[in-house]
Amino acid sequence: YSGWWVALVGIEKPGNVGAVMRTASALGASGILIVDSAVDVFSTNVVRNSAGAIFTVPIVEIGGDRLHEFAASRSARLVATVPEGGTNLWDAPLEDAVVLLVGSEANGLPEGLIAASDDVVTVPMHTTTVDSLNASVSAGIVMAELVRRRQ
């Protein structure tokens, strides 16, 4: 099994949740995990930003304490995304089954979850004028690279 899931961990902005759903659906994700989030995934803002993708890809609400169990049941590796300090995305092992972890805009991923991940990746940025990417943009870049590797 080489499917892949996107886990949105503590995401606070409904627009980003919808945008990630849209990209994940377009790129063929197996599903989306909503982890420890206060966002109502069926709110008008999420549905609108997903452009209907919310109805085309499986969505599972799950606690962060169950992520390892979820990944293990699918023989998938947990891959955390961080703004800096991870393995360069272009060099990261993404060919196997993966649960891609995307953290909140304000706080990123919890340290314990990063430490417990099988891999930690960073989208390389070639500028010093931008210190980070929007959560949905970063997720989209990583998802596109993940799909590219499988072709």
Structure commentary:
There is one protein chain. This protein is of the alpha/beta class. It contains 5 helices and 7 strands, in the order βαβαβαβββαβα. A 7-stranded parallel beta sheet has the order 3-2-1-6-4-7-5. Strand 1, helix 1 and strand 2 (31-35) form a beta-alpha-beta unit. Helix 1 (14-27) runs parallel beside helix 2 and helix 1 packs parallel to helix 5. The longest helix is centred in the last third of the chain and has 15 residues, at 135-149. The chain is globular, with a radius of gyration of 14 Å. The chain starts with a strand and ends with a helix. The relative contact order is 0.23.
> Which fold name fills CATH's third level, the topology?
Alpha/beta knot
Widest β-sheet, arrangement of strands: 3-2-1-6-4-7-5
The residue ranges in which pLDDT falls below 50 over 5 or more consecutive positions are none
Mean pLDDT: 92
The CATH H-level superfamily is SPOUT methyltransferase, trefoil knot domain
- What share of residues is helical? 25-40%
Major pleated sheet: 7 strands, parallel
Structural class: alpha/beta
List the helices and strands and how they pair.
Elements: E1 4-9, H1 14-27, E2 31-35, H2 44-50, E3 59-62, H3 67-73, E4 77-81, E5 87-88, E6 98-102, H4 111-116, E7 119-122, H5 135-149
Parallel strand pairs: 1-2, 1-6, 2-3, 4-6, 4-7, 5-7
Helix pairs in contact: 1-2, 1-5
